[in-house]
Design a protein that fits this description.
Layout (H helix, E strand, L loop, with lengths): L3 E6 L3 H17 L2 E7 L3 H11 L3 E3 L2 H7 L4 E4 L6 H10 L3 E4 L7 H14 L3 E3 L7 H12 L5 E11 L2 H4 L7 H4 L3 H4 L2 H11 L2 E9 L10 E8 L4 E7 L1 E13 L2 E7 L8 E5 L4 H9 L9 H14 L7 H20 L13 H4 L9
Parallel strand pairs: 1-2, 1-4, 2-3, 4-5, 5-6, 7-10
Antiparallel strand pairs: 7-11, 8-9, 9-10, 11-12, 12-13
Helix pairs in contact: 1-12, 4-5, 5-13, 6-11, 10-13
């Protein structure tokens, strides 16, 4: 089969990660070919196409879709531009990989999902932490039943971003990023948590402006309840000089922990079986996959495989929506000062149309 003709829209820092992963897949299997890139910044575009040997360059996404036939588009623009580029790509007959957050709101997310159905194309949302071998082992441990019932989880994204980071024009704004660390930073840890624990049913949260001059929050804390009965503490911060991403899952028969920063290896995981369950828990854990980093490459390999098979690539819009719902729920709870469920951020809610809803009142 011919390689998938692939393009990148937006050629900033995250686009380099996408291009490097695509280059690796091209070298491994020959199933993709990065043929085009688009960016409104001519100098940045020229440097990017030169570095990655990309033949076609375009001043914007519209010019790209008018000038080239593309099988797969990777959207790496600032979040505020994701939706229009994705809609244009779908209309042009391309499948789409879109960086996080996929859209600025649940309302926009549903527009995107509807367009996916109408065009018959596929959308994959970037959620690379689901694809490392440790996360796969954890989900297999849960599915096997040997871990027992989930009881408690901790989900901390404690990162550091100085004021200069937020002084970039499009950062720290509701209309361009959709939110602060709850939306733009902690979303990956929360997504991994939800992929393990399943549907959430209620959240109680606070969001604060503690130190940065920005429209959005710079820290949030939430208590989340799941349909399984498990409870979780979730922290999202960009104020923490000692940076860490930490996940802990306490089951009846095991504790599983992950410490990393922006991506993990097997070394970041720690398994602690409960007394009396050591053999069965370790047997399932050790039988799982190994040596797969949680990086874009791991997800993109699965995306290409699915597209070749004509099946929805991971992570689908259906899979990603609960994570967006939880982000909206955290904001709705924090700004409304009340417990919130998924039904409280649906159509008709102020937090469905915008993550900030009718707040915040700092």
């Amino acid at each position: 089969m011919k390689p998938l003709r692939t393009a990148v829209v937006g050629t900033g820092n995250v686009a380099r990660v996408h291009a490097e992963a695509l280059r690796d897949i091209a070298e491994e299997t020959g199933e993709v070919e990065l043929v085009a890139a688009a960016d409104t910044d001519a100098a940045r575009l020229a440097a990017f196409t030169s570095e990655f040997g990309i033949a076609e360059s375009y001043r914007d996404a519209d010019a790209l879709f008018a000038g080239s036939e593309i099988d797969l588009v990777h959207i790496c623009t600032p979040p505020g531009a994701h939706l229009p580029v994705a809609l244009a790509a779908l209309a042009a007959g391309s499948d789409v990989v879109v960086e996080k957050p996929a859209t600025l709101s649940l309302a926009e997310f549903d527009v995107l999902a509807d367009a996916e159905k109408e065009t018959g194309r596929f959308i994959a949302t970037v959620s690379q932490h689901r694809f490392g071998s440790g996360a796969r082992r954890l989900r297999e441990l849960v599915a096997s039943g040997v871990a027992g019932r989930p009881l408690l989880a901790l989900c901390d994204t404690t990162w550091f971003r100085d004021q200069a980071y937020f002084d970039v024009e499009w950062r720290g704004r509701w209309d361009t990023e959709g939110g602060g660390p709850t939306m733009g930073h902690g979303i990956h840890q929360m997504d991994l948590m939800l992929s393990v624990l399943g549907p959430w049913t209620s959240v109680s949260a606070v969001a604060r402006q503690q130190a940065r001059e920005t429209e959005t929050e710079d820290v949030s804390l939430a208590h989340v309840v799941f349909a399984s009965g498990a409870v979780a503490s979730v922290v999202n911060s960009v104020l923490s000089p000692r940076e860490e991403s930490y996940l802990r899952f306490d089951f009846e028969h095991a504790t599983v922990e992950l410490r990393h920063l922006y991506g993990y290896t097997d070394a970041g995981w720690r398994l602690t079986p409960a007394p009396g369950h050591e053999d069965e828990v370790r047997a399932v854990w050790e039988a799982g996959p190994s040596n797969i980093r949680s990086e874009h490459l791991a997800q993109f390999r699965e995306v290409v495989k699915a597209l070749r098979e004509g099946t929805p690539p991971p992570v689908s819009t259906r899979d990603a929506r609960p994570t967006m719902e939880l982000v909206a729920g955290i904001y709705a709870s924090a700004f409304g000062r009340k417990h919130v469920g998924p039904e409280d951020v649906g159509p008709g809610s102020a937090f469905y149309g915008e993550m900030r809803g009718d707040g915040p009142k700092w």
